[in-house]
Every structure is written in structure tokens, then in C-alpha cells.
């Protein structure tokens, strides 16, 4: 995992594809890159209590629950919809989980965050980060940063050279998150259906060699 700051932003289109085959289970402490001041013991949002782990096949119910919660809570942040994904069969969720390309953030017994990534068609040297979401009760404590870092490490381990993502134009929190981590706007902008009044921009961050 890297220690320095990164910056950036994300992308879109029709409902995004989802993760593909994945790798080994990965655990990390969300606090490890946080400034000491953020880990104050009395802080109920203490990120040191958060663990990020890779989702496996046995976690498909957890993946389904947190993804549907995200779509219900923050529909404007995503290009997919709650109605669309509520209609997915269990087999779809199982396939997503088995793919191993999602991470959840857990605090105590609760899942408080989700992120996924996948390889876009025609972009074998890149991975795209999707489905980023942190539960309202866990925000502003470094959970999203830890989830992005898990994806950065996973993508680098797969030999990817760049991590991209899309951010809806008015999603200031997400834009600041990614920019702080080093992502930079690529100039690619996509209109969002149905009215084209919203758009999203692609951001990218080069990845170091996995070796
Ligand atoms: C955007 C989101 C993922 C951020 O999650 P988070 O765990 O609160 O983010 P972090 O605590 O890791 O914050 C890291 C940095 O992001 C930026 N940031 C996060 N939330 C912010 C906000 N509400 N306003 C401004 N900047 C924000 C800050 O730079 C922050 O660093 P700082 O706390 O040192 O200032 C979360 O608000 C969320 O899930 N929103 C709804 C879904 C969504 O927008 N997903 C992203 C789709 S691209």
C-alpha cells in the first residue's frame, strides 16, 4: 500500500458492469494512513475501529445489502438504480461476490462502506473504481480513503497501470475525496440520462508497478 497522498475524480454511462474475478482476501486498518489527530480515542467515528476486507463468495448477502442500501440512500451518486438492482436474482449477487472485486468497510458488526472495481472492455491496462459508498454514520472519518486505497493496491497487484473513476459533476464530496488522493480529471465527460442535465467526469490516477 502506498503512504503518500493521491488525488482525483470518476466516470459513468449506462448501469455499470460489475467486478470480475478477484484475488485473495485482504485486510487492512483504515487508520493506517490517517494523521494521528484523526484517531482520537474519544471520537465515536474513530476510523481505527474500521476494517476493510475483500468480499468473497460467502459474502454475497452482505454485498447485496450494502449495495441496495447505497442505492436507496444516495441515488444521485450512482448511474444504476435501486429498482434495477433490487430485481437482480441471487445468482447475480453471488456472481459479483465471487468475482472478488469488491471491498467492504466494517465497524464493529456493521458494514459501513463499499467499493468495487473492474476492467473496462478495451482498457486491459486500467481498472475502474465504481460503487463507492460510505454510510452516513461513518462519514468523514477516512473510510472512503481506506476503500480507495484497497482498490489501488488490488489494481496494482493485478498489474494495472491506471485507476479511473467517474464523478457526477455536482458531487463535491466525492470530487474532493478523489482529488485529495491524487486523481486528476482526464477531460472525458459523459452526459447522464435521462435529461442530460447532469454529467459525470472521468478521473484517473497512475498506479505504481506492482513489484
Ligand atoms: C463521498 C463519500 C464516499 C466520502 O466518504 P467518507 O468516508 O466520508 O470520506 P473520507 O472520510 O475518507 O474523506 C476523505 C476526504 O474526502 C473529502 N470529503 C469527504 N466528504 C466530504 C464532504 N462532505 N465535503 C467535502 N469534502 C469531503 C475530504 O477531502 C476528506 O478529507 P478530510 O476529511 O481530511 O478533509 C461519502 O460521502 C458517500 O458515500 N457519499 C454518497 C455516495 C457517493 O457520493 N459516492 C461516490 C460516488 S463517485
TrEMBL record:
Residues 1-13 have a biased composition (Basic residues). Keywords: Acyltransferase, Transferase. One of its GO terms (molecular function) is acyltransferase activity, transferring groups other than amino-acyl groups. Gene3D superfamilies: 3.40.630.30. SUPFAM superfamilies: Acyl-CoA N-acyltransferases (Nat). Residues 1-45 are annotated as: Disordered. Residues 50-208 form the N-acetyltransferase domain. The keyword Phosphoprotein does not apply. PANTHER family: AMINOALKYLPHOSPHONATE N-ACETYLTRANSFERASE-RELATED-RELATED. This is GNAT family N-acetyltransferase. It comes from Georgenia yuyongxinii. The lineage of its organism: Bacteria, Bacillati, Actinomycetota, Actinomycetes, Micrococcales.
